[in-house]
Amino acid sequence: MSITKSKNTIKKKLKHRELENIEALKQIENTLSKNRGFVFKLPKEQSPVIMLFSGGMDSVALTFMLLEKYKLHIYPIFIKRSQQRTGKELKSAKFYISELQKRYGNLCENLEVIKSAIPPNKIRYPLALFSNTPYYKKTKSKQLKGLPVYTLSLASLAVQYACFLKITKKITVRTIFCGFTVGDGTVMAYETLTALRSTMASICLLQNDFSWQFTSLALEKELGFFLEKHEIIKWCNEHSFKLDKTWSCYYSFHYHCGECMGCGARQEHFRKSDVKDTTIYQKPNRLEQILYKIWSKTYEAYRQFNF
Fold first, then answer.
1. Residue 57's domain spans which residues?
2. Among 41, 118, 139, 193, which one is most buried in terms of CB atoms within 10 A?
3. Is the pLDDT at 228 greater than 60, yes or no?
4. pLDDT in tens, 76-104
5. Is the pLDDT of residue 301 over 70?
6. Rounded Cα gap, residues 191 and 202, in angstroms
7. Mean pLDDT of all residues in 110-127
8. Is position 39 within any domain?
């Protein structure tokens, strides 16, 4: 299965995406090229890179691709962002890092878990509720507000971790990957290619160092990638890598609820991939819902004082 596309094909697709700013994208890429001679350059095999590893299907699959296809040396970091489903995501992340280490040995480092609530807990809840509000209530746009400058928040933590590795272990990391895919950028403006490029340029300017790179493999047009979730699922299946233990649900019930936006996208893209979805979907019963509400309130109170 060929998963790459020509640059011209990707450029045409970008022009039809509501949330991309094509003019800004051109200017940013011109600035990057002028200062370092390229927009994005894949590091050599076994080069150290950082991966923002959430335990979700996209970050797990793209980390597998970075190891399987490009033999990069992965330093995965999990950001405990103060979401209710964090426990389920972290369980998935730990499981898959263990699996990747079995396959690739020292090319995959241990998972680094960093506590950093995004946004801070004191101001989190109005912003979190606001994040799922559509921008255009009177139109057919699917765009959601999202958490303010979310991508920059994640990228900043990854840059700080890279600097930590340099100081403590003398390991130089200048390339950071995240797990955004094509479909993400039709809903959240901060998950577009424009957002990735502007974040990369911001890092370079703030660090006064144009060797920094920040991207998602699934959206890296310099490599010919413009990948939907179902294409990634299919590629992983062809390389005997199962994604059934990743977590997509917005909640933290025992099983995926099968009804939230995360579960809906997961089901849809498994269908499109023609790969059997062995995820267990089970609507929580009344007792589970009551227990979950009690747990949620307790967890929220706990986070205020301990996160």
1. 7-249
2. 193
3. yes
4. 999 998 777 889 999 999 999 999 999 99
5. no
6. 15
7. 87
8. yes
